[in-house]
Amino acid sequence: MIPELGHFALILALAVALVQGILPLLGASRGDIRLMDLGRTAALTQALLVFVAFGALTQAYVTSDFSVVNVVANSHSAKPLLYKISGVWGNHEGSMLLWALILALFGAAVAVFGAGLPDTLRARVLAIQALIGVGFLAFLLFTSNPFERVSPAPLDGNGLNPLLQDPGLAFHPPLLYLGYVGFSVTYAFAIAALLEGRVDAAWARWVRPWTLAAWCFLTLGIALGSWWAYYILGWGGFWFWDPVENASLMPWLAGTALLHSAIVVEKRDSLKSWTVLLAILAFSLSLLGTFLVRSGVLTSVHAFAQDPARGMFILAFLLLVTGGGLALYAWRAPRLTPGGMFQPVSREGALILNNLLLCTLAATVLLGTLYPLFLDLLTGNKVSVGPPFFNATFVPICAPLFAALCVGPYLGWKRAEIWPALLKLRVAFIAAVVAAIVAATAIDGRATLAALAFGFGVWLIVGSLGEFAQRLARTGYRMPPRAALGMTIAHAAMGVVVLGAVGTGAWNSELMQTMKPGDRAQFHGFDVKLERMESLQGPNYIAERATLAVSVGGKSYTVLQPERRLFAVQRRQVAETAIHTNLLRDLYATLGEGEAANGWVIRLYYNPLAPWIWLGAALCALGGFVSLSDRRLRVGAPQGGKRARTRPIAHPAE
Amino acid sequence: MNRRLLFLLPLATLALMAGFFAWSLLAGRDPASIGSVLVGRPAPRLEVKALRDDEPPLTDALLRTGKPTIVNFFASWCTPCLAEHPLFTRLATRDGAVIVGVAWKNKPPEARAWLKRLGDPYKFAGADLDGRTGLDWGLSGVPETYLVDGQGIVRRHFRGPITERDVNETILPFLKGAK
Q1: Is B110 on the interface with A (CB under 8 A)?
Q2: B1 — contact with chain A (CB < 8 Å)?
Q3: ipTM reported for the complex, 2 dp
Q4: A122 falls within a domain
């Protein structure tokens, strides 16, 4: 009964979304306030209905209702409750439902918090949001119904993919979708602005919080995914340039660019059509990511619910949304009036450089991801584009980006001098050079590029913090606006990520050894002894566990217990790594194949600064949230566009 | 007018990409099957330092001796390399194959220690520490193995570890046939 209620709620939601997608648009063009107001009611209703549908599916999972096909295919009665719940979105249908839910919730959020928006703009934004929703709801109902029944009901289910049975991955998709789908709001704002034919400072200020929120969630989602890959795949790496990872990185890069270019629109009324384009692209790249992951046009270690038939549907949808948006852009954007003029050396110039570099990075990732597909179709040749390509292209482009990142905040709007800014950065520059030299001589004499990158990390941290300190000194130690604080946190956090990535990527060491109980291995000053091997019975798996006693200088230091789990239902093995961290380095152990006669393969990794990668990413998102809490952006704080434009530049944002 | 064309550029890019996607979906290609661009073409440049002390660097001349050659990229940190290693040892000792080993992104002392421990099947061994030669060779990881004929043309490209079956069905016939 409850699954049918969910199905019914989903159908109703589609109907409501159709109403919400059409009538407010009509109202906005005719100036009919009643039709426009319908958008808010419809948005709230639609969110409620999708929520009911999602609740119904969750209920089916929690109670292990095996009369529902989706539950049979992805759940099992012996699964812990957390994974029963995360199983809801650990499959194609459920994740699409989660996507539709978040989309509807964002629509409802615009309806609730958008009270200060002009009526026509709000009506159009809600309508666009609903039209996207129509696509997803129709996709669900017509090709991927999560509520399909099976009769007779099987006794038990097939279980969730063991790799997904992990606390990190339980929350990775929701966060990632909050980011992807969050960009739908910026997309809706961009389309609404093109329809209105007006982009101004007020528009930029309205778009900014939504962009920031989506960006923060996406940052967290990517970080969580990378962390998961780090400890579950057991290769000691944190980023593999896999198409699925790239799919999430591209919208992040475009979103980061959007975040920065929207500042120029807000403060200087310039770069308008470019910002609108970025707003369209950020969401388009999110959709492109979904298409690439699910259609099976590219292969990936994360191959997830691939199905060419669905691929066609997503492609059509992608074409409609992106193509429609870009066609409207081609038609209306040339009419947007260009705004204030500025010199190349200025805050605007710095932000344009930032945008150019970020977009180049996004284009590089796009090209690297799609090149194998293009080449295969055109010539029949198969290639794989992996880390070598990205290390040779992506990483070098980051250098000027990072170099300019610290300089930008020192430049004034319109025109600025470069030398005074550089002079103020001398401390950071010296610190960076010293760090690079120390790294090149003391840590690793061969990997000079890694030492250089290390210097860049220090430059980002010291440069950002130095700018903040000088700002404090200038304003008599009064707390600067939250936006500025957020910028400093996010910029410095980038440095933390860089240090972590360099440390882990370039200076890690590894030992692979076949060990029997009682055997010892010397590794990086640690004395590692395999104490014992044992078998355990988990809730839905059996495991082999190694107990490694780690001691330093004869004194017991820690115990690592890597496991290899065999999930009985799916006959799949998953390595459970054991990691000891002191926030400066990870000692990482995995258990490989083996048996009593010959011993087991134990792999040990020493990953310097590894925790900083995720710590930095979390800090980066924190910076975004701090910036989001700025009073200036607080929803409902009424501020005219005119006032913002004439306001002094006492509060440069990032 | 030119300005307008500029605004059409994003749409044109999308159309191009969508065309490829639709083509890919309709053609029903399988992205998981990986071939190689190198097969049938002259082997890419081989210019790496020698792995072992006191040996001259490896050059292209090694691949154009008139004798078939096996080029194997490996690393001491790679588990699959460990798995295929005995097959190379056998190919070298029993079948007298000329095998060029390139340690990819592997610190030479570590690679040398690895070979010392397991035995060294490589007639020539090079060290591609920065992975640049691997890039030229279209490497997606290690291990990968190329069969190069006497004229320096790549005849076969294995991604991942070679297996007993590869040896019996492909590598041995290649070594015999190309002689």
Answers
A1: no
A2: no
A3: 0.78
A4: yes
Q: Indicate yes or no: CB of A384 within 8 angstroms of CB of B159.
A: yes
Residues of A in contact with B138 (CB under 8 A): 383-384
Taking contacts as CB-CB distances below 8 angstroms, the residues of chain B near A190 are none
Q: Residue B36 has what pLDDT?
A: 62
Distances (CA, A) of A167 to A210, A224, A568, A620, B90: 28, 10, 20, 22, 46
- Split at pLDDT 50, 70, 90, the class of B31 is low
CATH number of B32-177: 3.40.30.10
The structure tokens listed for B156 are 């076969």
Can you give the residue range of the structural domain that contains A70? 1-160
A2 in a domain, yes or no? yes
- Indicate yes or no: CB of B24 within 8 angstroms of CB of A377: yes
From chain B, pick out residues whose CB is under 8 angstroms from the CB of A315.
18, 21-22, 25
- Tell me the shortest Cα–Cα distance from B80 to chain A, in angstroms: 12
Measured in angstroms, the CA of A607 and the nearest CA of chain B are apart by 14
What number of other Cβ atoms are within 10 A of residue B4's Cβ? 11
SS3 sequence of A233-259: CCCCCCCCCCHHHHHHHHHHHHHHHHH
Please report, for chain B, the start and end positions of each structural domain, with discontinuous segments joined by +: 32-177
- Any bridge partners for residue A514, and if so which? A601
CB contact under 8 A, A512 and B77: yes
List CB contacts (< 8 A) between B11 and chain A.
323, 326-327, 329-330
Query: What pLDDT, in 10s, does the model give residues A89-142?
Result: 888 888 889 999 999 999 999 999 888 889 999 999 999 999 999 999 998 998
CA distance B96 to chain A (A): 30
Does the residue A561 lie in any domain? yes
> In angstroms, rounded to a whole number, what is the distance separating the alpha carbons of residues A98 and A482?
32
At residue A299, the pLDDT reads: 64
Which of the listed residues A139, A160, A181 is the one where a domain comes to its end?
A160
Contact (Cβ atoms closer than 8 angstroms) between residue A486 and residue A577: no
The whole-angstrom distance between B101's CA and the closest CA on chain A is 19
Nearest CA-CA distance, residue B78 and chain A, Å: 9
Judged by a CB distance cut-off of 8 A, whether residue B2 touches chain A is no
**Is residue A626, in this structure, part of any structural domain at all?**
no
Q: Helix or strand or coil: residue B154?
A: strand
Residue A267 scores a pLDDT above 50: yes
Instruction: Measure the N-to-C terminal CA separation of chain A; round to a whole number of Å.
Output: 52
Give the least confident one: A46-60, A265-279, A331-345. A331-345
Query: Letter for the amino acid at A243?
Result: P
Number of domains chain A contains? 2
Copy the structure tokens of residue A6.
């969910």
Task: CATH number of the domain at A28, please.
Answer: 1.20.120
Query: Is B145 a residue whose pLDDT tops 50?
Result: yes
